[in-house]
Amino acid sequence: MNSIIDDITLAKAGEERIRWFREQMPLMADLRRQFAEERAFEGKKIGICLHVEPKTAVWLDCFLDGGAEHITIVGNLGTTKKDTAAFLATNPKITVYAKENDTLEDHERYAEMVMEEKPDLFLDNGSNLIRTYFKKERDWKPFGANEETRTGRLLIDDAGIKPTFPIIVIDDSPLKRLLENAIGVGQSVVDGFMRATSTLLGGKKVLEIGYGYVGSGIANKFRAMGSNTMVYDIDPVYLLKAKADGHTVDMDLEKLIPQADVIVTATGRFHIIRNEHIRLFKDGVMLCNAGHFGFEIDSDDLRKEADSTEMLDKNVEMFRFGEKRVFLLGNASPINLSVGTGNPIPIMDLGLGLQACCAARHLKKDNGLPIEIQPVPRDIDVMISEKMLAL
Ligand SMILES: NC(=O)c1ccc[n+]([C@@H]2O[C@H](COP(=O)([O-])OP(=O)(O)OC[C@H]3O[C@@H](n4cnc5c(N)ncnc54)[C@H](O)[C@@H]3O)[C@@H](O)[C@H]2O)c1
């Protein structure tokens, strides 16, 4: 099967870059040994949709060493690292569908191509594979599926999917939400923002939209860097939490937008920043997104409405509306992954460890998993936590 990637000549660079990540993922090394001994994935075909970046590449060894026959991986939108994609594509046991500038249409086409492989497992992030599978009658059924993130879970619910195999939502693990979402993403979003802008955070008015696990971590990390943080959430409970955490809040988003130097979205929903907000923006406002899909910001609509648009740097696009300038960072893709190198390595060692253990659980006889959407089994959370504590 032929991979669809940007540039195979980047394979060597991709391989070299992964070395540091491999070094920093001891849990993955441990699980890799365990799965190799158990032959946990013997002869299995695995369909994956996840960020094609170095930590994911390290993770794939768990399945290959565990005996997997073949892996087909689709990159998430806007986060593919071309060198990682090239390195993976050199492995005859891996097919990669991931280009840096893939569109939603490409992404959906790739998901349908994965179905042709009839995988035994889906390891999904954004539920693209799961939703594609349930779009029509299929003549095979996987043993099970994992969904990694909040947006993916919301989209499965929105589609009204009635599972015919167990689906484990990794994001429903307290471990993932407390460590990755609440702690890791905040750090990596600030890092991605800094890489894009090289600006001073102290004194900047940063508006966080969405104060769930991810948004609260982001607001807290910006504040730790000296920013004046404001929060908006449609849920008054979370807004009250933000107030009690010491952020400036308002139940009316329109009162907060005109004050913001920086706006960050992390809601898991779409069309949060829209053309109707243009009139409210401060001149020079920077927009970025941390949610799974870039559609939290209606960037195409903003672009169409603008008097002019110009790329000022690889990750900074300027829209002019009359005298007003608006800067879109990282094309609204999750900024920690599109501009930065994603979440801190130990955080993803843990998160991808949960994914790998849940994948192995699907394949175990008498695994006790009901045919429904469910959280990570508690014993896996405990086992991963204990392993991480002992490292
Ligand atoms: N970039 C990353 O590395 C990364 C990592 C993990 C999760 N995510 C993504 O981040 C997003 C948020 O995840 P989470 O775990 O914080 O979810 P969450 O459910 O804990 O929080 C989402 C919050 O957004 C609020 N919200 C929903 N619609 C809103 C609207 N229209 N306006 C304002 N607020 C609104 C909700 O009330 C909730 O408080 C998801 O898209 C998730 O997939 C990204």
Structure overview:
The structure is a single chain. The chain is α/β, with parallel strands linked by helices. Strand 8, helix 10 and strand 9 form a beta-alpha-beta unit. It has helices at residues 11-23, 26-38, 54-65, 82-89, 104-116, 128-133, 150-158, 174-197, 213-224, 236-244, 253-256, 299-305, 335-338, 345-363, 378-390; strands at residues 45-50, 70-75, 94-97, 121-124, 144-147, 167-169, 205-209, 228-232, 248-249, 262-265, 285-289, 308-313, 316-321, 324-329, 373-375. The model has no long low-confidence stretch (mean pLDDT 97). It has two domains: 8-176 and 343-390, Adenosylhomocysteinase-like (Rossmann fold); 182-338, Rossmann fold (3-Layer(aba) Sandwich), CATH 3.40.50.720. Strands 9-8-7-10-11-14-13-12 form an eight-stranded mixed sheet, sandwiched between helices. The site of nicotinamide-adenine-dinucleotide has 29 residues, from helix 7, helix 8 and helix 9.
